Amino acid sequence: MIKVATDWKDYQIIATGDGQKLEKWGNLVLLRPDPQIIWKSDVPLESNKAINAKYIRSNQGGGRWEYKGNFPDNFTVERKGLKFSLKLMGFKHTGLFPEQAVNWDIMQKLIKDSGRQIKVLNLFAYTGGATVACAKAGAHVTHVDSAKAMVDRAKTNATLSGIPSDRIRYIVDDCNKFIAREIRRGNKYDAIIMDPPSYGRGAGGEVWKLEDCIFDLVKECAKTLSDKPLFFLINSYTTGLQPQVIDNLLRICLKNFGGTSQAYEVGLPSQDGVILPCGCSGLWKSKS
User: Exposed (0-12), middle (13-18) or buried (19+): which is 240, by Cβ within 10 Å?
Assistant: First the structure.
């Protein structure tokens, strides 16, 4: 099953092919590589004269952006009252994953329908797409990421989206260490979101490998859930990790809370008629 992110006015995929996607972000057109696109294009996407910037891969790994004309340092997109300040970053990123709008809508509805004040913990929270969505729905969010620059951009996105300053608590820290402290403090959350990387190293040289570490982290996070948890969402962009694996993790780690879980791919529609898969998510939610 795949859930497709719709209702974007400031973002769209124009065309796909030859390992690349042609996208429109507001008034800007970008060409970026995507490993999921293994089909050919009838017309080379690079021939599109509207392209403002394209990402060029390096044979040594990584790559660089190549610009056409005066490209802005920052640009803004909006969806359903959520506004995001973006910029072209290394490793082909813009600071936002538009396919996650699928999960923003789900979480906002769960928060609004709960009829109570919800405390959300967002781990590996990046530039705050999920944070801003949950806060906009009325939740109080603790936003945790180890990169200060990403946390600063999340603050900017919250301000742009009109989120009250007391609605979000920002933490620059290693997520594992933060969870260990929250357990000792006895702090509880009604909902947890995590978007862990496939691989990474902490400031102290700690190695994170998703296949080896994710189970223990989810198990520890379960200790911080309140007596009436609302949901637990895991996102993954790790190649080869099937949605059922995430569903199994949630079922095993949250079995004492009851509830139900499901896992699904997330994707984006393209004007050329394809649905582009963009990772997967697993969602556990309470029955009531």
Answer: exposed
